[in-house]
Specification:
- The protein has 455 residues and is α/β, with parallel strands linked by helices.
- The chain folds into 3 domains: 64 residues, Orthogonal Bundle (Arc Repressor Mutant, subunit A); 114 residues, Aspartate Aminotransferase, domain 1, CATH 3.90.1150; 219 residues, 3-Layer(aba) Sandwich (Aspartate Aminotransferase, domain 2).
- It is built from 13 helices and 16 strands.
- Strands 4-11-10-9-8-5-6-7 form an 8-stranded mixed β-sheet, sandwiched between helices. Strands 12-13-16-15 form a 4-stranded antiparallel β-sheet, with helices on one face.
- Helix 7 links the parallel strand 5 and strand 6.
- 44% of the residues are buried.
- The structure holds pyridoxal-5'-phosphate.
Length: 455
């Protein structure tokens, strides 16, 4: 298909947006929205410029940036072609199973929301509002309630080995907003290129692209993120339990990653999304504790309490605090105050850690059963990433079609994700099995059913 005539492209310039940025955004939206499909040949930069009434420099720069971000395949002396794009959907080409047909839900990204301590939360919310001084009903510090920032500084230091000054904490609406904010901070400081784990979470990739950064994938092996050969202004990584492979960043890699960041002045963004759930003896402290000036630490209540709270926190290097606060103000003028105050109460009273001990024990039993069931029903396949979190990776042979396997599983009423759904250039094959939502007594029948599908 060809799009030689560019009259279909609607240029709608936002306030303070440069022409180049507007052209780039219009093309990107046409690609991600599906109007420009993979393989479509675009008009030359000259023809596009004429059609839009802009200079050729504007269109060729927009094309070059989109090629750098992977949306276009640039060809020497030929017009660009729309590339196979990274889609934000975690299951891009899977037909949803009819409602009620899913018997076993092994979605990896969510915890068991029924474990949320509703009564304790309600009591904390009641106290948070009942005991609040009138000024806390007003707009507050955009970085968040000082009670929570201080309680987190103590908790993260004690439990995660992080070095936290409450002045450097910004409370955000989950990791999602934390990463969005950091991507914008980086872009505002002139950063051009971010490095992300490949495989990784597609939505995180999209956040950097939306902020205007070029994004490069970096492979992951059994020791976590491969640091050699990395180039960029920032890297987003999940050291405690890589998503989705579950690899734990090894000691040598942790040191290499920090040395790399210090050497080139880059920022490491540490997504510590499920580190509270560790099952082995050894503790893996946050990377931030080893390099607070090179690492922005991002934590969340999504796994420990529930995703619907949309409550997370970012601990920043001193040089980024003012810019992050400015952006948080632009985004939403600060997160809702009372859930923050309620969480501060749970942290201070020790309730939060008691809750974590309870749910950790539940997840540990589910995980142990899962490992035993996989060992019993699928003994020839390796299981990785068992040390932490609420998901594991079941490796399939390199030539297996893991998406087809996930689709067959879905038709059999078992919801799992294929590793390749999270991949960009990486070629590993496997199934990502979440045990967060799986009741203990369902683990064995779920894996027996999965083994029949794979058999
Ligand atoms: C890698 C990763 N980071 C963070 C999160 C949590 O995101 P949020 O805090 O926005 O709910 C998830 C959820 O599954 C995740 O997989």
């Amino acid at each position: 298909m060809s799009a030689d005539d560019a009259s279909w492209l609607h240029l709608d310039r936002r306030p303070r947006e440069t022409l180049r940025a507007a052209v780039e955004r219009a093309l990107r939206e046409a690609i991600t929205g599906g109007a420009l499909r993979a393989g479509t040949r675009l008009p030359s930069s000259r023809r596009l410029a004429e059609s839009l009434g802009v200079s050729r420099g504007v269109t060729s720069e927009a094309y070059a940036r989109l090629a750098g971000q992977g949306f276009l395949a640039a060809r020497a002396k030929a017009t660009p072609v729309v590339a196979e794009v990274w889609t934000a959907s975690p299951r891009p080409d899977r037909a949803p199973a009819p409602v009620g047909r899913i018997r076993f839900d092994l979605t990896a990204t969510t915890p068991d929301v029924t474990l949320f301590p509703a009564n304790r939360w309600l009591a904390a919310m009641r106290a948070a509002i009942g005991q609040a001084p009138p000024r806390s009903f007003d707009y507050g510090d955009v970085r968040g309630a000082i009670e929570l920032r201080e309680a987190l500084a103590d908790y993260l230091g004690r439990v995660r080995g992080a070095v936290v000054d409450a002045e450097r904490v910004v409370i955000v609406q989950g990791t999602a907003q934390g990463i969005d904010m950091l991507a914008r901070v980086l872009a505002a400081r002139g950063a051009r290129r971010a490095v992300l784990n490949d495989p990784g979470l597609p939505s995180q990739w999209d956040r950097f692209v939306e902020a205007g950064l070029e994004v490069a994938g970096q492979p992951v092996d059994a020791e976590g993120l491969v640091v050699d050969g990395m180039h960029g202004d920032a890297v987003l990584t999940t050291p405690a339990h890589q998503f989705p492979t579950g690899a734990v960043l090894s000691g040598p890699r942790r040191r290499a990653l920090l040395a790399w960041a210090r050497g080139c002045g880059a920022l490491v963004i540490e997504d510590d999304y499920d580190a509270e759930f560790r099952y082995g003896q050894e503790s893996v402290p946050a990377l931030q504790g080893l390099g607070p000036e090179s690492v922005a630490y991002v934590g969340t209540a999504s796994k420990t309490l529930m995703p619907a709270l949309r409550l997370g926190w970012v601990v920043l290097p001193a040089t980024l605090v003012a810019e992050a606060a400015r952006l948080k103000n632009l985004l939403d003028a600060g997160s809702p105050t009372f859930p923050q105050r309620a969480l501060a109460i749970l942290l201070r009273s020790g309730e939060y850690e008691r809750h974590l001990r309870r749910v950790r024990a539940v997840y540990r039993r589910r995980r142990d059963r899962l490992i035993a069931a996989l060992d019993g029903h699928l003994p020839s396949l390796a299981v990785e990433g068992i040390a932490a979190g609420v998901h594991v990776l079941l490796r399939l042979p390199k030539d297996a079609d893991d998406r087809a396997a996930a689709q067959r599983a879905e038709r059999a009423g078992i919801r799992v994700a294929a590793l390749s759904e999270f991949a960009r250039a990486s070629t590993g094959r496997g199934l990502v099995l979440g045990f967060g939502r799986l009741a203990e007594e369902d683990v064995e029948p779920a894996i027996a059913a999965l083994a029949r599908v794979l058999g």
